[in-house]
């Protein structure tokens, strides 16, 4: 008995792992199909070509992040903690974003309109905090969001640098987290 939704879910999970590991150009539909225990034709039928599948995978992962860790201008420390924890539990999202950057560079993305909407909501949260005086308005809201996410995400993106520069002990990781939160507080201070 076939279960199309279960098959789609297996394909999706296999695609997340494949794209995170190999990027868009290096990913192979046959490996996704094998990992999902599905045939290649189902992947194309459900998700389209490889670029469309990647776009759907990344878009879904970003929606999951936005729902799990909304930007909170009233609690930057808590937001940083939640973002660090999310990326520690889901390192594939940042890998997917980096692969996208390698593939597309500054060219327009296939789902650019949806992405602009996604980020507009996050920027609006920063603008709200700025208009209420809880965040600095010396830095434009979009720029501030870029700086905060870069500050928070970078240690998950380059774990080798985190290990070399900050150390490997739990106390080293705790200290680095505290440093990131302090830097974020200073960045948003009025």
UniProtKB/TrEMBL annotation:
Residues 5-65 form the HTH tetR-type domain. The keyword DNA-binding applies. SUPFAM superfamilies: Homeodomain-like, Tetracyclin repressor-like, C-terminal domain. It comes from the Bacteria. Keywords: DNA-binding. Residues 28-47 bind DNA. Pfam families: TetR_C_21, TetR_N. The keyword Thylakoid does not apply. Gene3D superfamilies: Tetracycline Repressor, domain 2 (1.10.357.10). PANTHER family: HTH-TYPE TRANSCRIPTIONAL REPRESSOR SCO4008, TRANSCRIPTIONAL REPRESSOR. This is TetR family transcriptional regulator.
């Amino acid at each position: 008995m076939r279960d199309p939704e279960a098959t789609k879910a297996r394909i999706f999970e296999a695609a997340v792992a494949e794209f995170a590991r190999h990027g868009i150009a290096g990913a192979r539909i046959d490996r996704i199909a094998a990992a999902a225990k599905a045939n290649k034709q189902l992947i194309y039928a459900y998700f389209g070509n490889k670029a469309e599948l990647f776009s759907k995978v990344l878009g879904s992962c970003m929606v999951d992040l936005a729902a799990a860790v909304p930007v909170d201008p009233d609690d930057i420390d808590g937001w940083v903690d939640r973002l660090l924890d999310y990326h520690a539990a889901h390192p594939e999202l940042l890998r997917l974003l980096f692969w996208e950057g390698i593939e597309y560079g500054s060219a327009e993305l296939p789902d650019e309109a949806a992405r602009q909407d996604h980020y507009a909501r996050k920027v609006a949260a920063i603008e709200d905090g700025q208009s209420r005086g809880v965040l600095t308005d010396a830095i434009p809201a979009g720029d501030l969001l870029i700086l905060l996410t870069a500050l928070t995400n970078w240690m998950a993106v380059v774990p080798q640098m985190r290990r070399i520069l900050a150390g490997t002990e739990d106390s080293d990781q705790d200290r680095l987290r505290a440093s990131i939160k302090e830097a974020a507080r200073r960045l948003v201070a009025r």
